[in-house]
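Example: Pre-mRNA-splicing factor SLU7.
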Amino acid sequence: MATASVSFKSREDHRKQLELEEARKAGLAPAELDEDGKEINPHIPQYMSSAPWYLNAQRPSLKHQRKWKSDPNYTKSWYDRGAKIYQAEKYRKGACENCGAMTHDKKSCMERPRKTGAKFTNMHIAPDEKVESFELDYDGKRDRWNGYDPTTYSRVIEQYEAREEARRKYLKEQQLKKLEEKNGKNEEEEASSEEEEDEDKVDEAKVDESKQMDFAKVEKRVRTTGGGSTGTVRNLRIREDTAKYLLNLDVNSAYYDPKTRSMREDPLPDMDPNEKFYSGDNQNRLSGQALEFKQLTVHSHEAFEKGQDIHMQAAPSQAELLHRNYKIIKEKLKSQTKDTIVEKYGNAASDEALPRELLLGQSEREIEYDRTGRIIKGQDMSLPKSKYEEDIFINNHTSVWGSWWKDHQWGYKCCHQTVRNSYCTGTAGIEAAEAVNDLMRANIARKEASDEKPVQQEEKRLATWGTEVPEDLVLDKKLLADALKKEDERKKEERDERKRKYNVKWNDEVTAEDMEAYRMKKIHHDDPMKDFLN
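Written out as structure tokens, the predicted fold is:
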């Protein structure tokens, strides 16, 4: 598809554009038109159809693929042979001394040399030739057939046609002469009857020869500007058949592609299929040998993907043979599977005869329905069966798993167990479970009654620094808070020495609270959270 210019498109617009291109290629949508109203072939690749950005094309077109830079000075015309301009009555100064024409001199004159030239006789002055000059382009200078008139070759064609006509006429005369000789040899009694037959034969031989000649004639197209030398044999298609594009003249009907001469959809979908002779080209693709070839191709691709050395184009005979063997093996497996099922379950259709009421479609059973269609009387409601196995009891259970529910847990109804695939304990298990539950409830109630509120004791903060710390050492919270403030002030002085005072008094007495404050403010280099401490 020819694109006018490169522009941003959303994903939805791009998807719609791709769908439209596929529809145009399949013939479901009409082809795109260019600026001149001509159809653009949808099968043209994008790198050929897209116009360069510097052309600033506003509409789709294929002009950039044509010769759009044409020089107006060049021409394709040719000399007007034999054209005359003017014929003088008397000799003119500077004209040809032989014929009297002004367009050439005596040396370049192509006329027969006269005994006395026109310069001296002043009679029979030749007309002036038409002199032209052309500026040809590169191809025009090297065109060997430039200026050639193809109609001149018609003389050669006429000679060959006359020779062919004479040959056919001679053969016809020889045939008639043989028939006359054969008629003269017969007896007079049979002459009358045979003459009539011979006359019929002669009449048949004299049938319109033009039709027979046209049928066997090979029309040849000579070299022209439209193409080369080709032989076109007469088309044997019955001209009474209606062309496919004339079956339905509706504009919105099936699309006809003139290049490939294909119409994939059905032009008359509402017509009786027994009366129409054409149902679209897609019908041929889904029937006959086309469908078999499609199945063969799919089988070869699938076999190649599974590891078999098979190729449809390289070895078509091998691919067809493998496909044939595959179909035979498939039919055998299908019949074996069927025989196995019949052998295991039987074949009710062939072994047992159907009941009489089913054969006749009626019975004496009476069934009553209500207004909603439900059965009231005459037939029991049948429970629908699932595809899973039902009523299968394991481990001595008499019910299935999920038949009992309690405290958000599933279990067995027969023994009230919530452990799946456990062994059934029956009624004794139910009684034992109830006894355990009663005992548990009694213990909980006794514990709640005997519990008393504990006496709240003051929390003691023990020191955790050093190795030789007495176990009964208790820190004072107030002294610890003061020690933490002093430690913060000491660290600030260490960061900025300008805040250190001149008269510094050192206190060598370290209390347990000071040691605990130092330990709490100390930075551990292995601590991953050390950067978040103040």
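Residues 1-5, 207-233 have pLDDT under 50 and may be disordered.
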